[in-house]
Structure to design on (622 residues):
């Protein structure tokens, strides 16, 4: 059976702790100061049974930080209102916090009904409460009239809580473990122990776990849930985790435990903030604020991306710069409180936990980041088109399961490569066009250099190597580019060469054809034609790229046409003879030893002939 966690909420002295004691038999005011002052200061914990935990939170405005930490990872709320007082300031603030954190279902207990003789007054309190819940978009929540002293109405409330727990099914969208720490203590013989509600995933004794924001990896020495030891805990469980060889001093309320290497610490996030309609606060650019995320409180400043100020009811994207490192997950909800005096003024949701890793303009990206998680996934896939991520990287970024990510991929018709790279058809076409444009630009600058080295293209586009290799292979398969020993060229693309250069090129090429089977040196040809060194180099490059002329070594070149003639002569020769001597080759080609030897070595390299001592035999090409 799944475990659930229910958190109390309500004004000070409205009977939250007394109600929890009635429901569980446990007094959650464990601190001496709490008992002396008769008020809850810190969060307390109690169990209805082995599947239901109640977290009791302080109602006093001075301890809102502890209240937010207490309700950070609850499933349902238990809203407590004294019938004689009705809705009070902390009632409103607590309900606002619950609404901003997305906790909009649970139970309402009207306590101290014994102090109210007028039934109409209680009805009026209920009506006011329902109006407030509607205003804050809560679900329809049942209301129970209870007496903490006599126990009247308690059993019905307890039975309904148990029934809800029995029918509750947790659905973790991530296999990564994560827990926000709400307590840290040392236990003799065990060492450091932390407690919290498992937010995601599952962990077992002996597993490794990473402590954030310290980035320290350790092992789980032991696990407890609901007072008993256990081998593992999963989403929704209240867990006490005994950590191996870890000092208590590196942990605090607000620390995060997670699967190693699945989170990154950050001091900057992109978020969507919604200011409460009930506040008079105006949010200004670079304003210092308090941010309650998980069980932690962080100080930071907001960078407004569109306007200079925002007021009540406004909803907008911001960049938040924290003063300390933290570890958060996309779609984490948080509370925004003013620095001084401390008032709850807004709530937010994390749109991106590591915005500085996103390519492009940070302000523009933060302004355009969608709230809808599927649209945000598509938006980020498009932003990362030069550095596309694989499925496991998207899992880590969104803190979601492989199944969830694949579902999104299918939903918006993305493509997954054999090595798990996620991309869109639009981004593929954009990348292909980018490379084609690079070729055309290069050809404009130097029309004689049609082949470009593969590594030069990668250096120019500045993409991730894995994405470049994928795009490159697709372009080869589509016959957009051609790869040869000389480099890469555009298929069926003829660079524009002016008439003068074209005329000179034809003269240059004709010399190689006229030389018959005699390899020649291009530099000598160019000088004979009165050409500059650059023009000679350009012409060699162009004809070589086209494989019109071949470099056989020792600065000797031969036309492809004449080389093929030599190959044909050799083919006929080997039909009647098995061995070819240097003398045979010289007679066959009318070449001198000076050019015959480098040409024979080139034929060996091309596997047209095979050298054996001082003779050649027929090569594999035949």
């Amino acid at each position: 059976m799944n475990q659930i966690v229910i958190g109390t909420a309500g004004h000070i002295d409205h009977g939250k702790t007394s109600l929890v004691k009635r429901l569980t038999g446990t007094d959650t005011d464990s601190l001496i100061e709490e008992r002396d002052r008769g008020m809850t200061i810190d969060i307390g914990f109690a169990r209805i049974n082995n599947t239901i935990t109640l977290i009791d939170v302080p109602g006093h405005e001075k301890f809102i930080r502890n209240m937010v930490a207490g309700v950070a990872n609850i499933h349902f709320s238990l809203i407590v209102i004294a019938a004689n007082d009705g809705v009070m300031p902390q009632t409103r603030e607590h309900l606002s916090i619950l609404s901003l954190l997305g906790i909009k279902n649970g139970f309402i207990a009207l306590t101290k009904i014994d102090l109210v003789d007028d039934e109409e007054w209680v009805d009026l309190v209920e009506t006011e409460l329902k109006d407030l819940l509607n205003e804050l978009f809560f679900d329809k929540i049942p209301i129970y009239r209870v007496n903490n002293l006599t126990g009247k109405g308690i059993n019905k409330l307890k039975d309904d809580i148990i029934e809800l727990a029995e029918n509750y099914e947790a659905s973790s969208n991530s296999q990564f473990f994560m827990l926000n720490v709400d307590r840290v203590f040392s236990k003799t013989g065990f060492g450091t122990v932390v407690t919290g509600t498992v937010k995601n995933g599952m962990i077992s004794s002996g597993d490794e776990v990473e402590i954030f924001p310290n980035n320290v990896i350790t092992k789980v020495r032991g696990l407890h849930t609901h007072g008993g030891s256990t081998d593992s805990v999963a989403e929704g469980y209240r867990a006490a985790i005994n950590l191996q060889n870890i000092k208590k001093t590196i942990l605090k309320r607000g620390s995060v435990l997670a699967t190693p290497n699945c989170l990154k610490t950050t001091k900057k996030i992109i978020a969507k903030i919604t200011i409460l309609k009930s506040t008079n606060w105006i949010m200004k650019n670079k304003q210092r604020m308090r941010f309650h995320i998980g069980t932690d409180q962080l100080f930071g400043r907001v960078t407004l991306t569109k306007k200079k100020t925002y007021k009540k009811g406004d909803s907008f994207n911001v960049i938040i710069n924290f003063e300390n490192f933290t570890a958060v997950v996309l779609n984490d909800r948080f509370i925004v409180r003013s620095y001084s005096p401390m008032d709850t003024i807004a709530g937010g949701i994390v749109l991106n936990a590591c915005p500085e890793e996103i390519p492009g303009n940070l302000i523009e990206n933060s302004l355009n980041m969608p709230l809808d998680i599927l649209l945000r996934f598509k938006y980020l896939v498009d932003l990362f088109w030069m550095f596309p991520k694989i499925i496991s990287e998207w899992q880590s970024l969104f803190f979601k399961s492989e199944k969830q990510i694949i579902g999104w991929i299918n939903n918006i018709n993305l493509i997954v490569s054999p090595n798990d790279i996620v991309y869109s058809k639009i981004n593929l076409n954009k990348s292909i066009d980018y490379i084609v444009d690079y070729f055309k630009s290069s050809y404009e600058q130097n029309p004689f250099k049609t082949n470009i080295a593969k590594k030069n293209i990668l250096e120019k586009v500045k993409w991730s190597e894995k994405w470049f290799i994928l795009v490159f292979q697709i372009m080869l398969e589509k016959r957009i580019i051609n790869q040869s020993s000389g480099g890469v060229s555009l298929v069926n693309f003829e660079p524009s060469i002016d008439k003068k250069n074209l005329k000179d090129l034809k003269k240059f090429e004709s010399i190689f054809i006229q030389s018959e089977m005699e390899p020649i040196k291009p530099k000598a040809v160019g000088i004979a034609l009165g050409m500059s060194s650059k023009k000679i180099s350009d012409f060699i490059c162009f004809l070589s790229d086209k494989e019109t002329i071949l470099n056989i070594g020792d600065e000797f070149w031969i036309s492809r046409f004449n080389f093929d003639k030599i190959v044909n002569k050799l083919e006929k020769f080997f039909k009647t003879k098995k061995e070819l001597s240097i003398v045979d080759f010289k007679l066959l080609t009318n070449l001198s030893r000076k050019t015959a030897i480098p040409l024979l070595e080139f034929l060996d390299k091309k596997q047209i002939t095979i050298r054996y001592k001082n003779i050649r035999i027929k090569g594999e090409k035949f």
